[in-house]
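User
Here is a favour to ask of a fellow structure person. I am asking you to supply a protein in sequence and structure-token form. Please set it down just below, with no commentary around it:

Assistant
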Amino acid sequence: MYGPAQEVLDVKPIHLLGAIPFIGILGGIFFANRVTPYVLGMPFILFWLVMWVVLISVTMAVIYRLDPANREEQNS
């Protein structure tokens, strides 16, 4: 029998992928906090944030594809 505390501790590796965007945006701000160099005409900090918006979409798509709950075919 699992209690609420055990359900919280039952973290699967695909769920840890959801932490990557959080670390990338919030943790990377300290690394990327500069104006130069310009990348694609944007200051580096703006490029960093735009890049992570795109990477978040890719990461969430990977999580969706790896999640076994989404592999079941829905019978209509």
Observations:
- The two ends are 33 Å apart (CA to CA).
- Residues 12 and 52 are 23 Å apart (CA to CA).
- Helices lie at 4-9, 13-16, 19-32, 44-66.
- The longest helix spans residues 44-66.
